[in-house]
Amino acid sequence: MTDKKSRNGWGFATRALHVGQGPDPATGAVVQPIHLATTFAQQGVGKHQGFEYSRSGNPTRSALEENLAALEEAKHCLAFASGLGAESTMMLLLKPDDHVVYMEDVYGGTFRLFDKVMKRFGITFTAVDATDLEAVEDAITPSTRLVWLESPTNPLLRVVDIDAVSEVAHSHGAMVCVDNTFATPYLQQPLHLGADAVMHSATKYIGGHSDVVGGAIMTSDDELEQRLRFHQNAIGAVPSPFDCWLLLRGIKTLALRVERQSENAMAVATTLESNRAVQRVHYPGLESHAGRAVAQRQMRLFGGMVSFEVKDEATALRVLEKLEIFALAESLGAVESLAEHPARMTHASIPEAERKRSGVGDGLIRLSIGVEDAADLVADLEHALAVANA
Ligand SMILES: Cc1ncc(COP(=O)(O)O)c(C=O)c1O
């Protein structure tokens, strides 16, 4: 474990490698041990070394939580069994008649949680285009407790001005939680932009190797942390020690991976923009992107996600079938490149009219760019587009 003081001056890559990951004091092992124990012996009733029962707390999970908190420069982090485990725990802080305003093109599973689960408990939701500050302000009511943002969004890579929306939300007494999955803490730190909490699907860039499902919430608000900690234990959506260890292992290369993914994504987006079979490219790094200036201000680089539109669904499905390097698969953020069709896959749980209204059309393809050679990714896409349009 690292001394809290020493991490303050460290850069991101150093924190990723060393916070919570120091040599094991018992053995000197340089890799964090996996503590499988479900229960911990007490020296007398209530006298223990910080751990009692693994749902309430586990040393491998604590190491991960310490590390993730340092990545977002937050005081606290709580790790969960999945991104949706984190989201549902956050939602259970709300009560009947509370109202939530959310960015309209959130991840489909987030929409499903709001629409099909939380509404049953009397919580109400309003979707807005959060790139429009007036729309956010108009949607807020005296019952609004939470503004839920994603930036860049999934799958249209729209960029929300987190600072500006947080100011509006706070002026009405609502808190702000940002799903920072797409950006990663390496590219964007929403707590420094005014958000009260950050949520991650750690399944994506944080794990980075398509081999672990996980989630996290970070906050510097002590009271919020206490309420979340109570619900984390009460609901029990906690990650296994092995999953925590896999996440810690993945985090060691987070900065390296995201640098390369962002570089590759820019090469892919630029090429796609000049391809005649492509109608539109969504990538915050392109001059043509409406949110570029905000992205430049609040992100270190533009990230590894690119979406593009071809003329119709049949063409999109043909392109996806013809890709050789990109695997046709849901999920994102891993070292290998993936491609998917949001309308039929990740966003299929959103009713068609709602999906189309938010701009997720049938010809849209979403790419998660990996760390392969950029030239090979570009060639794979150009070939698939040429064959699909022949
Ligand atoms: C932006 C975003 N948020 C949340 C989630 C949910 O995370 P998980 O699949 O780890 O439950 C996902 C999953 O794809 C996602 O893409």
What distinguishing features does this structure have?
globular, 390 residues, five-stranded mixed β-sheet, Aspartate Aminotransferase, domain 2, binds pyridoxal-5'-phosphate, alpha/beta, 37% helix, seven-stranded mixed β-sheet, Aspartate Aminotransferase, domain 1, single chain
Count every helix, treating DSSP H or I runs of 4 or more residues as helices: 14
The secondary-structure class comes to alpha/beta
Give the biggest beta sheet.
7 strands, mixed
**What's the multimeric state?**
single chain
| Residue share in β-strands | 5-15%
* pLDDT < 50 stretches: none
CATH T-level topology of the largest domain: Aspartate Aminotransferase, domain 2
How many distinct folded domains?
Answer: 2
Question: What is the first-to-last residue Cα distance?
Answer: 58 Å
By CATH, the superfamily of the largest domain comes out as Type I PLP-dependent aspartate aminotransferase-like (Major domain)
Q: What is the typical, i.e. mean, pLDDT? A: 95
Output the helix-strand order. Answer: HHEHEHEHEHEHEEHHHEHEHEEHEH
The strands making up the biggest β-sheet line up spatially as 1-7-6-5-4-2-3
- Taking all Cα atoms into account, the compactness measure Rg is 21 Å
**Shape by Cα distribution:** globular
* CATH C-level name of the largest domain: Alpha Beta
CATH architecture classification of the largest domain: 3-Layer(aba) Sandwich
Which ligands accompany this protein? pyridoxal-5'-phosphate
Helix content: 25-40%
Topology overview:
Elements: H1 12-18, H2 59-71, E1 76-80, H3 83-91, E2 99-103, H4 108-117, E3 124-128, H5 133-139, E4 144-150, H6 162-171, E5 175-179, H7 184-187, E6 197-201, E7 215-219, H8 222-235, H9 241-251, H10 254-273, E8 280-282, H11 292-298, E9 305-309, H12 313-322, E10 327-328, E11 338-340, H13 352-357, E12 364-368, H14 374-388
Parallel strand pairs: 2-3, 2-4, 4-5, 5-6, 10-11
Antiparallel strand pairs: 1-7, 6-7, 8-9, 9-12, 11-12
Helix pairs in contact: 1-2, 2-9, 10-14, 12-14
The structure holds pyridoxal-5'-phosphate (PLP).
Pyridoxal-5'-phosphate (PLP) binds next to helix 3 and helix 4.
